[in-house]
Fold:
Amino acid sequence: AAIPKTLGEAAGPTQPDFESIVMGIIPWPSTTMRALASDDEALRTRLAGPMEPQEAEQILWLRLPSLEARRERIRAMYARYDENRYLEDLVSGFRPITKSSGVMGSAAGSRRSQAAIAPQPGMAALRDELVQRSIEREMEALRAEYVERLRVWRESVIRLRFLEIELELGREHTSLLDDLESVLQANVSAGKSHQSELWELMSAREELRTTLFTDREDLAHLQQSLALALHAEGVTPKIVWTQRGVAADAVPTPDALRARLLERSPPLRSKRSERSQARARLALLERMTAIPLGWRPAAFESGLAPQAGAWRRNPDGAAPPDTSARQSATAAREALLTEARRRVASLDDEVKAATIEAETQLSLHVRTTRAALERVHSHREQLAPLARQSYESLRGAYAAGRTPYVETIRSARRLIAVEQGLARAERDFGLHRVRLLALVAGEIEP
Structure:
């Protein structure tokens, strides 16, 4: 975003463009959605009914306190810029002090010193660039936090949905064991089966009961977490779930995602914006240190000696003699420049390292997502149908007295395990896909 006019050399809007942060991730919230998010009672009423995933994600953007705190910080940076106080905050190493007593001068004196420096060619433009890069860094930090919060939210929605699926499966499996128990009870009464076989069935039922209890507890926890994330305590959000065909969920290759990764990866963008800020600060410091030392030493701060910093012009305009204070001031300026140059060089290396790490993570996420998709296909197309056929065949043979009970109960347990495995494989695929696309800050459909 451009920076507002200052010192007659830069012009632009006076409000940050937050819409650009979520562009390509979620649709920008409408006026109606913003009004809904600001009204607690209306929001609680809306959450009580079915809600599309994108609606919930927009409310998350609007209501999460940590995101609002970052937005307020960015607005404050614009306000400080408009009030011409940005130099005070961003270039403290060169903050002019008008009193030679070692005590900070007044704000008016600081502004007079700024006005004295301002006519230097290009100075205001360099300060504008530094402020712009600083705001850009805060905007990227806001974007990175939202992408991460959104990833966690979407993972929770996926887990919630598949816990509901597992509970539905649990009810089906309970009916399956009930049906098997009725046949077994008849055989025990007729002396065709031993009582120990009934105990085996009771053991399988208890394992299933324990699993269902854990799933219900996890479901309640996730429902509460989603409500807290939207600041709607006591309401269970009903996020609409659209089951997508797994065959349609093509997993992109690393090559197909690499360009998008380099352009949109939140960690990479944050690191690059930090480097841009450091480069802008270095350019400003280099320009300020190029100002002739025709200034008498005055007080200085930023951890340096009081005599080692700012200058004010002699009454006759002549350069002061080479005093020890002037030499200290020169050394202080060089130290600031050296530190700034080292920081830029360090950030160059950090950007390269972050790029390598991002590409490594991309390759890893693609592989794990493809592996999860293969497990889904294996369970859905092979393991689950075979387990179902095996159980139904053995159950009929056992009822007719042609198969031992142990094989039948083993088959039932195998069927339960495989169908639960299918649900978990689909859940894992959804989670891996969310993480993969969050890595490139793309739109993510659960």
Observations:
- The CA atoms of residues 296 and 311 lie 5 Å apart.
- Strands lie at 50-51, 238-239, 295-297, 311-313.
- Residues 19-439 form a domain with the Outer membrane efflux proteins (OEP) fold (CATH 1.20.1600.10).
- Confidence is low (pLDDT under 50) at residues 1-13, 84-119, 294-319.
